[in-house]
Here is the input.
Amino acid sequence: MSVARHVYLRRVLFGRRFSAALTLFAGLRMMQLLGMSERDFQSAGGVLPICFALTSAMTFLVFVATPLFLLGLSDIPAMLASYLRAIRAGSRRASFMRLVPVVALRAAVFAFFTVMSGLVIVALRFGCAFSVAGYTLFALMETVPMAVMLLTCGLLLLAAYLATCSLPGAACCALVYDAVDYAIDRTYLADTPAMWLGWKLALFTYPVDLALELGKLVRLMAIALVFLALAAGAARRFDYQMADGGS
Here is the structure.
């Protein structure tokens, strides 16, 4: 692979905005580490999922992690709007489909970073109370649904942008979806799994029920596929939207 192509792929897969979002997130995690102590984890009863939840509660994920992730995707709409990319791909829809793996990779990286940084805080502040195998298994089982949740938010961002040609409006749509389960969690429906649509599907409930967790993951993947289909359909009409907006 030539140096120029390597640099190009690196810029597309991990753009400056995504790198900046990760850097800012790392800074916030560092502040969180400095602000927590072993006493904060005493109420967890030595249960790893509960300890992790203390570092990555839904409030933190909804109002910190997801907005930063969407900031890291804010260069993708410009790629979607590029006529040159659409011509090279053969169609706007094909151009969109080429960017889906980029969004998925960024979601996986951000989710992995979120989970690992949370576990590092647990290890440093609560001590090495859990085995390496325990940390590894939990990291794997939490990273996957969290990556799917972030991917779902990213796909909604792109679908809304393709439908409205407005990045601020698209970001608002993704943030509203991001906060749906946060709102549900404050109603009598909080303990009704059938009503969960977002982060409550991605976070482990304790005690862990593998059948429930698998069902939550499948439903979250189904929501992601719906947003993928909506975005692919909107991509076909994007050029008409742009023409109407420019006329």
Observations:
- The longest helix spans residues 210-246.
- The two ends are 43 Å apart (CA to CA).
